[in-house]
C-alpha cells in the first residue's frame, strides 16, 4: 500500500533531498491520516452512543484530535518546503519540530480530558449495553491504527521526519488504547453487574495513561531536536570516512554538527595537517573534503586547518607522553592541538583536552590533575590546557 500511494502521489520519489518531494510525501501521509481518523471518529461516536460507553466516545474524540494532528503536519510540510529568505537564512525545515511539539500537546490534552471524564463516570457509574456492531468497529479500528502507525513510521524513516515519527507513535498508542476499550466492552458483557459498571471508566483511565505515555515520548524527542542533540553515528562516520581518505589529513577534532531541520545539516571541524606542507595544497585538500561532504552526504561543512609539528622527535615524545598521562585521569580523554614552546626558564606545553561529558570532575579539577602529573615528570614544564567537552 505504501509503494502504491507513493507511486500515485509522489513524483520523483527517490529524490529525498528535494523540498518539493518531501512536501509531497508529507501531503500524502497527512491527507491519508485526516481521512482515516475522521472516518474512525464518526463510526466510533456512533458505536459509543449505541453502547453508552464513555471509553468508546473518548476514543472517538482521540481520533478527532489525531485528524487535527495530521492537519498540523500538513501545514508544517507546506511551510518547511519554503526556500531560505533574509529572515530565515537556514530555511524553514525546523517548523517540523514545532509541529511535533504541537502534536504532543494535543495528545496530552486528550489524555487530561479522558482522565476527567473517566473519574466522573467512576464516581457515578452506569451500565453498558453490549453491542456487536461496536465490537466490530473497535476491532477494525485497531487494524486501521496499526496500519497508520506502520505507514507513518515507514515514510518518516525514509524522509527523516520527526513529525511523522511522532504521528506513528501516536497511532500505535491509539491502537493499544482501542484494544483496551475493546477488552472493557467485551468484559462488561460477562462480569457481574457490580463490577461491570466500573470496567469502562477504569479502562478509560488506562487508555489515558497510554495516551500520556505517547504524548510525553513525542514531547521528549521534539525537545531534544529543538535544544540540539549529539549527531547521529551515521553522520559522524560519514564525515570521518571522507576525511580519512585523504593522507594529508592527520587528525580530526572539535567536530560539531547542527541540524536545521531534516535535510539541512551544518558541520564544523578541525583537521590537523603537517605544518611544513604548502598551505595552498592543504587548503585544496580541505576544499575537496568540504565539497564531497556537501554533494555526497548533504552536509554543509566548514573546516579549520590546524598545522602541527610532525618531524620533531622531542615534540612527538612529549605529545605521546601527555596522551598517556591524561588516560590515567580518564581513559576517554584525548588531546589535540599539541604545541611545545621552549623558554629560558621553563617550557610551555599547550594543548586541548577532549573530555567526555560522562567525566563528572570540573574542568579546573581535570586541568590541575594533568598539570600536576606533567610537573611531576618535568618540574620546569608548565601545562596550558583548554578543555573541550565531547
Description:
The protein has 390 residues and is an alpha/beta fold. It folds into three domains: 2-227, Cation efflux protein transmembrane domain (Alpha-lytic protease prodomain-like, Up-down Bundle), CATH 1.20.1510; 233-308, Alpha-Beta Plaits; 313-389, Alpha-Beta Plaits, CATH 3.30.70.1350. Helix content is 65%, strand content 14%. It contains eleven helices and six strands. The chain has helices spanning 2-9, 19-51, 54-80, 95-123, 132-159, 162-190, 193-227, 233-244, 279-297, 313-329, 363-377; strands at 251-259, 265-274, 299-308, 334-342, 347-355, 381-389. The strands form two sheets. A three-stranded mixed beta sheet has the order 1-2-3, covered by helices on one side. It has a three-stranded mixed beta sheet with strand order 4-5-6, with helices on one face. A hairpin with a 4-residue loop joins strand 4 and strand 5 (347-355). Helix 8 runs antiparallel to helix 9 (279-297). The longest helix has 35 residues, at 193-227. The two termini are 43 Å apart. 35% of the residues are buried.
Amino acid at each position: 500500500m505504501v509503494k502504491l500511494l507513493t507511486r500515485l502521489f509522489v513524483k520523483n520519489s527517490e529524490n529525498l533531498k528535494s523540498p518539493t518531494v518531501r512536501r509531497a510525501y508529507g501531503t500524502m501521509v497527512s491527507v491519508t491520516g485526516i481521512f482515516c481518523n475522521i472516518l474512525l471518529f464518526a463510526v466510533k461516536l456512533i458505536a459509543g452512543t449505541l453502547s453508552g460507553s464513555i471509553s468508546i466516545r473518548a476514543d472517538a474524540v482521540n481520533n478527532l484530535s489525531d485528524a487535527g494532528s495530521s492537519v498540523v503536519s500538513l501545514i508544517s510540510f507546506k511551510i518547511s518546503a519554503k526556500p531560505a529568505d533574509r529572515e530565515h537564512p537556514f530555511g524553514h525545515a525546523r517548523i517540523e519540530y514545532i509541529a511535533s511539539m504541537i502534536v504532543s500537546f494535543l495528545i496530552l490534552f486528550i489524555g487530561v480530558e479522558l482522565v476527567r471524564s473517566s473519574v466522573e463516570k467512576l464516581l457515578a457509574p452506569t451500565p453498558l449495553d453490549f453491542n456487536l456492531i461496536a465490537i466490530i468497529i473497535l476491532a477494525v479500528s485497531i487494524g486501521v491504527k496499526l496500519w497508520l502507525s506502520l505507514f507513518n513510521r515507514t515514510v518518516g524513516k525514509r524522509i527523516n521526519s520527526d513529525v511523522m515519527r511522532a504521528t506513528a507513535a501516536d497511532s500505535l498508542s491509539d491502537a493499544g488504547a482501542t484494544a483496551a476499550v475493546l477488552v472493557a466492552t467485551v468484559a462488561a458483557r460477562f462480569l457481574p453487574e457490580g463490577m461491570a459498571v466500573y470496567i469502562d471508566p477504569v479502562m478509560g483511565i488506562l487508555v489515558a495513561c497510554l495516551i500520556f505515555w505517547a504524548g510525553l515520548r513525542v514531547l521528549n524527542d521534539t525537545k531534544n531536536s529543538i535544544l540540539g542533540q549529539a549527531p547521529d553515528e551515521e553522520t559522524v562516520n560519514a564525515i570521518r570516512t571522507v576525511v580519512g581518505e585523504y593522507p594529508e589529513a592527520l587528525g580530526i577534532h572539535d567536530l560539531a554538527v547542527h541540524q536545521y531541520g531534516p535535510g539541512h545539516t551544518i558541520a564544523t571541524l578541525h583537521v590537523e595537517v603537517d605544518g611544513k606542507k604548502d598551505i595552498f595544497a592543504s587548503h585544496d585538500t580541505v576544499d575537496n573534503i568540504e565539497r564531497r561532504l556537501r554533494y555526497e552526504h548533504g552536509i554543509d561543512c566548514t573546516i579549520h586547518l590546524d598545522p602541527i609539528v610532525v618531524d620533531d622527535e622531542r615534540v612527538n615524545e612529549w605529545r605521546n607522553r601527555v596522551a598517556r598521562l591524561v588516560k590515567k585521569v580518564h581513559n576517554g580523554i584525548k588531546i589535540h592541538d599539541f604545541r611545545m614552546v621552549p623558554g629560558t626558564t621553563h617550557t610551555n606545553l599547550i594543548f586541548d583536552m577532549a573530555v567526555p561529558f560522562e567525566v563528572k570532575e570540573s574542568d579546573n579539577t581535570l586541568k590541575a590533575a594533568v598539570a600536576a602529573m606533567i610537573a611531576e615528570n618535568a618540574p620546569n614544564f608548565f601545562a596550558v590546557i583548554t578543555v573541550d567537552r565531547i
